[in-house]
Amino acid sequence: MRVLAAMSGGVDSAVAAARAVDAGHDVVGVHLALSRGAQGGGPARARGCCTVEDAGDARRAADGLGIPFYVWDLSERFTADVVDDFTAEYAAGRTPNPCVRCNERVKFAALLDRALALGFDALATGHYARLEPPASGEGPPTLHRARDAAKDQSYVLAVVPPHRLARALLPLGDVATKDDVRAEAADRGLAVADKPDSHDICFVPDGDARGFVRARVPSAPGVVRDESGAVVGEHDGVVGLTVGQRRGLRLGTPAADGRPRYVLSLSVVTGDVVVGPAERLERRSVTGGAPVWCGPAPAAGARLGAQLRAHGAEVPAVLTGTDPVEVELAEPVRGVAPGQTLALYDGTRVVGSTTVAAAR
């Protein structure tokens, strides 16, 4: 097959590309320029991903593998579908996951579409997840958790429709640990073997997501109330606050019991923020919007696993509705907020996903 290997400049994508070469595929490497700064049109960022340094690391890895290498400018698409979406979601009082959006709209949409238009058969990435043939033997492959549970990224791929995942290669899904990937990279002589992982939102390299949003969206000051309605503090803008937040609230009145308080709800209309104890963040019922099913939709009453954060624990759940998606959680989950992604599992298999609309 002709395979386009997405190479971020990190160790995972480099080893994924190397494994695609080993499998006998005709591989071409591509690095995505997702910001003007990453192409030399502005200052390179010292942290995050997709920097000028990352592009250089990706090129050196491709050279070491002996494969052609290109840099593709998808900065406009990334800005519109990820950065602007991130800003708009926070401005509307929701909590987005930009990595989910990037996979859904950029890597497995814009990038994959361009690859197919150029005659490639598949897109290889360094995601930690597995694709397996369907149990029936017919139809697209099914998405499963990676062998390395600590690095599993099936959650951020759960939003990708099956017909697009059918064009994906995920060579790292069966590795035991990230240390094994680094050891393999070292054995192959890849200079990125010891390169640290990036944990920041790539377009917010200083880690200040709220500051990033507030610089782009006007937000008026307002009051912070406890559950009785009493004013316990003030804030300088709802934008960038999120359900479950504790830090940066600047509460002038301590709780009667002295315990920490968290954002329970917020309104971009009134500007009010309501705070309360941690246990008031617990939710047992979640409703989502339009679903993405990775195969036939399960029937109401199905017992599944629910995951609500990229690194969150899976919780047993019962599917009580399919369109819109409704689930009842077997145990409470704290800090569930509109805008988050709900991924549903049957064992290791991803059943589907939806965007959280409400939780109670």
TrEMBL record:
Entry GO CC: cytoplasm
Enzyme active site: C102 (nucleophile), C202 (cysteine persulfide intermediate)
Positions annotated to bind ATP: A6, M7, S8, G9, G10, V11, D12, S13, L32, G126
Swiss-Prot/TrEMBL catalytic activity: S-sulfanyl-L-cysteinyl-[protein] + uridine(34) in tRNA + AH2 + ATP = 2-thiouridine(34) in tRNA + L-cysteinyl-[protein] + A + AMP + diphosphate + H(+)
Predominant place of localization: cytoplasm
GO terms of biological process kind: methylation; tRNA wobble position uridine thiolation
tRNA-specific 2-thiouridylase MnmA-like central domain segment(s): 211-276
MF terms in GO: ATP binding; methyltransferase activity; tRNA binding; tRNA-uridine 2-sulfurtransferase activity
Record has Acetylation as a keyword: no
E.C. designation(s): 2.8.1.13
Localisation: Cytoplasm
Region (Interaction with tRNA): 151-153
Keyword terms of this UniProt record: ATP-binding, Cytoplasm, Disulfide bond, Methyltransferase, Nucleotide-binding, RNA-binding, Transferase, tRNA processing, tRNA-binding
Positions bearing the site annotation: Interaction with tRNA: H127, Q340
Domain tRNA-specific 2-thiouridylase MnmA-like C-terminal: from-to ranges: 286-356
One Pfam family recorded for the sequence: tRNA_Me_trans_C
Superkingdom in the source lineage: Bacteria
PANTHER family for the chain: MITOCHONDRIAL TRNA-SPECIFIC 2-THIOURIDYLASE 1, TRNA 5-METHYLAMINOMETHYL-2-THIOURIDYLATE -METHYLTRANSFERASE
Listed NCBIfam families: PRK00143.1, trmU
Purpose of the protein: Catalyzes the 2-thiolation of uridine at the wobble position (U34) of tRNA, leading to the formation of s(2)U34.
Similarity-based family: Belongs to the MnmA/TRMU family.
Protein's UniProt name: tRNA-specific 2-thiouridylase MnmA
Organism listed in the record: Pseudokineococcus lusitanus
